[in-house]
User: What shape does this take?
Amino acid sequence: MSDKMCISSAQCRAARAMLGWSQEKLSKRAKVARATVADFEREARTPILNNLIAIQKALEEDGEIEFIPKNGGGEGVRFRSS
Assistant: This one.
């Protein structure tokens, strides 16, 4: 996982869109409730740290996504290069 970086709700939405994953699929891969993903993505609440880490890990490991931190030229998301 990317140096303990916590992703933003916008990064989560973007990564999920890039992968073509539903909120349900992400919730199953991350082993968190679908409501946790939905609430996070609409910025209603921030998940507890272990759920946020699980969401990020699912997108990075299962989806081969790489998150770009704000200090990397602007917060973003990209596919991990091979």
